[in-house]
Design brief:
Layout (H helix, E strand, L loop, with lengths): L3 H16 L1 E6 L3 E6 L5 E6 L3 E7 L8 E6 L5 E9 L9 H15 L11 E2 L6 E8 L10 E9 L2 E9 L5 H12 L1 E3 L2
Antiparallel strand pairs: 1-4, 2-3, 3-11, 4-5, 5-6, 6-10, 7-8, 8-9, 9-10
């Protein structure tokens, strides 16, 4: 989707990579425990063939951004924005999570091949959330052809994910959705 949204996403990813300092980098499969200032830990599991960086700003009140890429090649870029409500420790509202996915998808529809938005629930019994997958109507050479957008409620956190990929049937999309669905929040 050559829309301004894709350009904005790519710009945000680039700016985050330059402005924020990495605090954790990993390339081993297994659970990751990511510290969240005053919000415990986010626990996720990533595949062994992915690299992950956790980007934080010096102001610990701003949630981190997780950036994941394959160890080899440029098959995808996955960013996960960790968000929390600074005034409440209540779990995220399911209807609000679904609405955010729907609004994000509707903004992409004019530049996608799809005519209708299909919102799906995350797989499994873990975190509750929703996702969409859309394809670019007119991708330029070397641009990603597909976008997966998802939001998941995890404890009192909301994880907002955007995956840009070249393959709509990629196992990496499945892994990303499983990672979101299996995410947990803990005190320790």
């Amino acid at each position: 989707m050559r829309s301004r949204v894709f350009v904005a996403i790519a710009g945000i990813i680039s700016i985050l990579a330059l402005v924020l300092s990495p605090t954790l980098s990993s390339s081993q499969e297994g659970p990751r425990k990511i510290p969240l200032q005053d919000h415990g830990f986010l626990n996720i599991r990533i595949p062994a063939d992915w690299n992950m960086e956790v980007k934080e700003v010096s102001d610990k009140k701003i949630p981190p951004v997780l950036i994941m890429v394959p160890k080899k090649g440029a098959a995808f870029v996955l960013t996960v924005n960790v968000m929390w409500n600074p005034t409440s420790s209540k779990p995220a509202d399911d209807a609000e999570i679904k609405r955010s996915v729907e609004e994000g998808g509707k903004a992409e529809l004019p530049t996608s091949k799809e005519k209708d938005l299909i919102i799906r629930g995350l797989p499994g019994k873990g975190a509750k959330g929703y996702y969409i997958i859309l394809s670019d109507k007119a991708p330029k050479p070397n641009e990603f052809e597909y976008v997966m957008k998802a939001s998941a409620g995890v404890g009192n956190l909301v994880l907002g994910a955007i995956m840009l990929t070249h393959d709509k049937a990629s196992k990496d999309i499945d892994f990303a959705l499983e990672m979101l669905a299996g995410a947990t929040q803990s005190d320790r």
